Amino acid sequence: MKPSTLEQIRDIYDTSKIAIVLIGMPGIEKKFSRYPQLYSRVGFVHNFKPISNKEMKQVIETKMKEFNINYTNNGKQLQEAFAEIIRITRGNLRTIQRLMAQINRVMEINSIDNLEKDVIDTAKSNLIIGN
């Protein structure tokens, strides 16, 4: 974020007295330390751990419903699809969102009705996913 954006966030906090939660990459608090007016208002820093496989499955199912992705495949195909998405995203919610949106796009463009591993592989190949 630019310093002007950080200043706006500080101003919103000061004038509204509402809690503000900022989520970013590890070390974001060090960046904030360069802005004493904002840094003095930081209550605490919490490092989130990757979500569990069970939680990931719930997120994936929610995204499938959101994107109207048919996931009525037989149990084995669906479990393989979930396992592949979990393997690719490693618990990163932003990556799940991006991958699911790309899966939806691939399925729409190719008129595919069911989620399959090749769809996931194609969607992954169209994304830039870090190590």
- Give the fraction of residues assigned to helices: 55-70%
Fill in the CATH topology of the largest domain: Helicase, Ruva Protein, domain 3
Q: In one word, what is the shape?
A: elongated
The number of distinct β-strands equals: 0
Count of alpha/pi helices: 7
Rounded to the nearest angstrom, the distance between the terminal CA atoms is 23 Å
CATH architecture annotation name of the largest domain? Orthogonal Bundle
Helix/strand/pairing category: mainly alpha
Radius of gyration from the alpha-carbon trace, in angstroms:
19 Å
Query: How much of the residues is beta strand, in percent?
Result: under 5%
Instruction: Kindly report the average pLDDT value.
Output: 84
